[in-house]
Amino acid sequence: MDSRDLKKRISSGEEIPASGDKLPPPPVRAGEAPKYEFSGEKLQIEAENMYYDGFQLVGDAVASKSYALKLLNDSSWAIAEVNFPAGSYEAVANVLAPSANHTRFNLYVNRDSYLLYGSEPPIGKYELTTRSPASFTLDVPTTVTVKIQKNDIKNAANNGHDGMTIDYISFKKIK
């Protein structure tokens, strides 16, 4: 592959694994928001399996399923729908922050925004956002739209950063 072809593939957001990486084939890109059913105690949604735009698919042997999504700009988004039974839940993400200037993003659960971030300064490897979990309660069974987005449209003080790599979102029933 020549350098012009490589630049074109990178600018289109195509995943380019590092040379020598032996990764499984990348997942098929979703054409619409995938639907999940929460049952049991936990649900893990791989970011690369969400319906997305403005993210770069990144091959990474350390990521849970060998791929993750890298947040590129203000218009980046990724969505999925989840059917939750009534109850209280906590959501965290498995993330990789490349530097202290690229450490946070917003997770929307329907219209509610939660700012998620890992360690400050970042630890330099994937970590769960346990310092800033998103906690929510549903009084009745509800289909929820889950959205990953850089910025909080209601509060600019909670805007996120370009560069955050998101492996997965994990939902846990807490009661």
Describe the structure.
Strands 2, 4, 5, 7, 10, 11 and 13 form a seven-stranded antiparallel sheet that branches. Strands 1, 3, 6, 8, 9 and 12 form a six-stranded mixed sheet that branches. The chain is mainly beta. The protein starts with a helix and ends with a strand. Strand 4 and strand 5 form a beta hairpin. It contains one helix and 13 strands; from the N terminus they run H-E-E-E-E-E-E-E-E-E-E-E-E-E. It has one domain: Galactose-binding domain-like (Jelly Rolls, Sandwich). Helices cover 5% and strands 43% of the residues.
Question: Summed up, what is this model?
Answer:
This protein is 5% helix and 43% strand. It has 175 residues and is mostly beta strands.
What separation lies between the terminal Cα atoms? 53 Å
Strand fraction: 35-45%
CATH architecture classification: Sandwich
| Structure annotation, total helices | 1
